[in-house]
Amino acid sequence: MVKVMIVDDAAFMRMVIKDILTKNGHEVVAECVDGLDAVNKYPEVKPELVFMDIVMPNMEGIDALKKIMEMDPAAKVVMCSSIGQQSVVTDALKTGALDFIVKPFDAAKVLEVIGKVI
Amino acid sequence: MDMSEYKEIFKAESEEHLQQLNDSLLGLEQNPNDLEYINTMFRSAHTLKGMSATMGFSTIAELTHEMENLMDMVRKSQVEVSNGLIDILFECLDTLEALVEAVDSGEEVDIAHLQATLAQAMEGTMPVQEIKGSVTASIDTIQNEIGKEIPENTADAETKTDVAPVIDNVELSDNEKQAIQDAIDEGNRVVSLKVILDESCVLKSARSTLVLINVSKMGEIIKCVPTEAELEDEKFDLEFSVIFATKSADEDIVGTIKKISEIKDVIPTTVAETSGVEEKQQEKKSEETEEKKNTSAVKRSDAVKSIQSVRVNIERLDNLMNLVGELIINKIRLNQLASDLNAKDLDESLANLDRLTNEIQTEVMESRMVPIDQIFSRFPRMVRDLAKSEGKQINLIIEGKEIELDRTVLDEIGDPLVHLLRNAVDHGIESEQERKQLGKPVAGLVRLAASRQRNSVLIEVEDDGKGMEPGHLRDIAVKKGLLTREEVDKLSDNDALNLIFMPGFSGAKVVTDISGRGVGMDAVKTKIEALGGSVKISSVPGQGSIMKLQLPLTVAIIQSLMVTVAGETYAIPLGNVIRDVGIKASDIKTIEGKEVIMLRGEVLPLLRLHDVLECPTEEEEKQNLIVVVVEKMGSNIGLVVDDLLGQQEVIIKTLDNKLLKNMKGFAGATILGDGSVALILDIATLI
């Protein structure tokens, strides 16, 4: 079981990811509505893995990733991107994100990524 | 994956985003240079794209993808924010709305026409189109080149110590050769790693970056084919090679890279090495990292949960409210039984029950409250469209959108508010030319404001238009045959304004296609009063009108005055009650055959509920009568009742079966403490 924090401004996406995770024995320890929320919650929640959306209000995923990596260089962050975001994902990976998934994704992809990074 | 269970939340959230898009677009129309609106629209379109793609709604995904592209071009100043563009975007939003709406029915919505328009909108930006073209072209050529450059690997490429000028047919620069030589001198091996991506891989450039990052953790990258820059620009097909110096063994390298997702195959080839491989050091290192991993895992296991809100279906809340209602009825019943039985021992626990049910009721009521913005937010768009079609300029000011109302009330007041706003724009605000002549600002002002009163919410719709002339309204009432000339002449100016609430009255000289929809002001008034609210109007000719809607916070539970008439108990909503008074039968006077009484210097018309409800009257006329003074349409009326039972909160059970639905005069029924049923009077329709 992996303790996961989900960061996505769309409640719909959070729900989809959460269901995939919980149905497969993982635990969602926090849901964050934007990057700022994620940066605030990360230290108290200490998730083993973060699923981070990229385009969000208040603070974009890439900035939240940077802040989280500063706080915890061992943080495990997987970016959730859409097509057409190559450069941001590339930047995120260089910043320390371990992997990424591309929307639309299915349960198998999400679980595969967890298996690979944990 | 079955996505149908997410349909509801998908729809709900999509609607939120559509609203945000609408709001931002309206904002953008006012301030074409405000980047914040553009960014917000970009984000919303993007989020919608991701959501709809996940749901498999490809048409929505397509359209939002194109909108996102367009917004991106606007953001980069490649497309100008023109009126035409705003209109196209509005059309996109309307189409999206239809698409989201059609999600249930599975109906097809044709977006081909819109896509053509969108393409045209982006047309004004030839440079971008050209770039797109050249990119595809160069990808083709690069694919060809790669095909030439990297033929199948052969095992005999193991050249020792001597640095070959060409590795796998890849030419090396002098610097690169030097780097390879240095690496070998330091005891490294130089490996050429061919990486093949899955066909399903979507973001190939990002995937290749991830490979390079992992490779650089194992050694030093000397060269990439294609170059790193080309990889980042996705100028490759499915495979690429990286030449790097490392101390790691082949199986470790392959293992590490294969752990990355979407990697089909990894083929390492040693291109140069020295004989001494320092494996020990390597083992030590991996042990260290293993240890690190363990400690961090321990640290993380004490994670805490923190989820602050959940979405609840409105039906749940309705059920909860009903249950609370039943609970309160039972509580009242229990109270009554306890007092009948004179069971003092029950007092304390009954008092507790009382407090707890009150608290539950408050909590449930609060949880049903939603910000009024949920309906206010759709008005800017509506007013804009109206104003545009009428050729008027309107400044819509919205205040108090954070004010909260019960969901049921909110659902009901949408249509009345639409009507009032349409009236304000259509009939209230003068044409641009007229306003100029009058010396008014060209742009008309419409104000929509909500504010919380003690136990109610006040909504005001105000305009600075031509206002209403009482004399003119009197004339119309006579012309339409609603009242006689004598009748209207008796009305005060204020009462004359209230004529617009009469069924069949329409103040418009010309019936436009906008306001003349058959829903008159009488419908507005009926609806608001059915909710237990009231509508008041005031107007100054030449300066504008203001409509005031007073609304209860909730409709499920109301405070009522309980009265008896002919042995039956009735509830009169306290909102309608001004006061109760005792009068003497001898004080009743008759004016034009109607009973009235002088009360505090004013004439108060009397109505005997016996007569209104058609109950048998007692044979003997009582000397002392009880009158409940209620307010209707701004004037007071005295209701003669048999007895007052006191105030009580009653749970409204609606009379919505076929037989009773259309019965006027009753707002519903309620169950009393003794289990009997009492009707709730609806003053608005009763008299």
From TrEMBL, chain A:
The modification 4-aspartylphosphate is found at residue 53. Keywords: Phosphoprotein. It comes from the Archaea. The keyword Repeat does not apply. GO terms for biological process: phosphorelay signal transduction system. The keyword Nucleus does not apply. Gene3D superfamilies: 3.40.50.2300. Residues 3-118 form the Response regulatory domain. This is Two-component system, chemotaxis family, response regulator CheY. It comes from Methanolobus vulcani.
Automatic annotation (TrEMBL), chain B:
It is an enzyme of class 2 (transferase). Residues 274-298 are annotated as: Disordered. GO terms for biological process: chemotaxis. Residues 1-103 form the HPt domain. Residues 557-687 form the CheW-like domain. GO terms for molecular function: ATP binding; phosphorelay sensor kinase activity. Its EC number is 2.7.13.3. Residues 277-298 have a biased composition (Basic and acidic residues). This is Chemotaxis protein CheA.
